[in-house]
């Protein structure tokens, strides 16, 4: 039994446009997840964190910025938004 009770905001399913928008943003979501993983590894390493963890964070940050710029350059018209 779950102690967290979540009620559905709406019983409506996502539209095709909603799903297309998520799919279009997926590279950014994946890059942000990679950054989060790198940050967690750095925190878990504590005082024993190496330069490798630091470089992994910087590399992930650059990737997030790169993918964000690519999505911004595409604009909303390519994401199916009107």
Written account of the structure:
The chain has about 80 residues and is an all-alpha fold. The chain has one domain. Helix content is about 65%, strand content about 0%. The chain is built from two helices and no strands. Helix 1 runs antiparallel to helix 2 (about 50-75). The longest helix has 30 residues, at about 15-45. The protein is flat, with a radius of gyration of 18 Å.
Shape: flat
Largest sheet: none
| Class by alpha and beta content | mainly alpha
Count the beta strands.
Answer: 0
| Regions with little confidence, pLDDT below 50 for 5+ residues | none
| CA radius of gyration | 18 Å
Number of helices: 2
User: How many separate domains make up the residues?
Assistant: 1
Map the helices and strands.
Layout: H1 16-45, H2 51-74
Helix pairs in contact: 1-2
In short:
The chain has 82 residues and is mostly helical. The protein is built from two helices and no strands.
Features:
82 residues, flat, mainly alpha
């Amino acid at each position: 039994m779950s102690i967290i009770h979540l009620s559905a905001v709406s019983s409506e399913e996502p539209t095709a446009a909603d799903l297309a928008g998520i799919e279009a943003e997926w590279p950014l979501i994946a890059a942000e997840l990679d950054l989060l993983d790198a940050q967690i590894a750095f925190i878990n390493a504590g005082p024993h964190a190496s330069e490798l963890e630091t470089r992994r964070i910087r590399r992930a940050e650059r990737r997030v910025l790169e993918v964000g710029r690519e999505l911004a350059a595409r604009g909303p018209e390519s994401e199916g938004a009107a």
